[in-house]
Amino acid sequence: MSDDRHVVLIHGAWSRGDQLSDARRAFEARGYTVHTPTLRHHELPPAEGASKIASLSLMDYVDDLVALVESLDSPPLIVGHSLGAYIGQLLAARIAHVGLVAACPSSAGAAALTAPSLRITLGHFRQKRPWAMPVKLDWKVFRSAVAPTLPDDLARQIYADLVYESRRVLFWELAHPRLDRKKAAAVDFARITTPVLIIAGERDRIVPASHVRKVPSRFANARYVEIAGSDHMVLSGKALDVTMGHVDDWLADSGLSVAN
């Protein structure tokens, strides 16, 4: 068996795996073998991937990640950001892992209704045949709600690499979990008994810290930390070093330590 210790790093909505390259390097510097999968069809150019992404389910995303984790030689540390943090919880309930880090995790149901999310929803429904369309994130919403504290050049660089997201995931499975017969967004929290770290950004408007503070109570063994002055992008820019400091402390206190 390999001595590798794995991290599976899951990106958020509209994103791709390589957009977490700074976080990947941070974990690699700590001796981990890091996997940054791209959610299904998000690797395609936006014009090509849009129609394929539109009807994807959370279950599609989780199934792909289960296959990845099952291919590893040891259970990984699961780290997710935003939608990726919600997917990480679904994954952790299905597969062996050593711990879970959920950074600015998306919410389901009424908790997902924030002013920025409503702006995204209303903007989408102004389009023709909205239920046949994938979802694009508007720059103004991104800049004001997701990344208001990032330097402008970094914010524009991140935004330029965004792709479309699934309308089924955002406007059905997460927005109306009780109506979804397949219960795609239902997390079996009782199955997650490993150490959990929940991270919020103090100035996050898309997933406010006031919402994230409620998440740890769902787990048997969870810690909450809040990154002062940070927006949603706690794994980017200057916030990353602060975030990784909290991750290091949590790993050590949980007996997981760092790989090296």
Can you give a write-up of this model?
Helix 3 (58-70) crosses helix 4. Helices cover 36% and strands 12% of the residues. It is built from ten helices and six strands. Helix 9 links the parallel strand 5 and strand 6 (222-227). The model has no long low-confidence stretch (mean pLDDT 91). With 260 residues, it is an alpha/beta fold. The chain has a six-stranded parallel sheet with strand order 2-1-3-4-5-6, sandwiched between helices. The protein has helices at residues 21-29, 46-53, 58-70, 83-92, 115-125, 139-146, 152-160, 167-173, 209-212, 239-253, and strands spanning 6-10, 33-35, 77-81, 99-103, 196-201, 222-227. The radius of gyration is 17 Å and the shape is globular. The protein has one domain: 3-Layer(aba) Sandwich (Rossmann fold), CATH 3.40.50.1820.
Which secondary structure elements does this structure contain, and how are they paired or packed?
Elements: E1 6-10, H1 21-29, E2 33-35, H2 46-53, H3 58-70, E3 77-81, H4 83-92, E4 99-103, H5 115-125, H6 139-146, H7 152-160, H8 167-173, E5 196-201, H9 209-212, E6 222-227, H10 239-253
Helix pairs in contact: 3-4
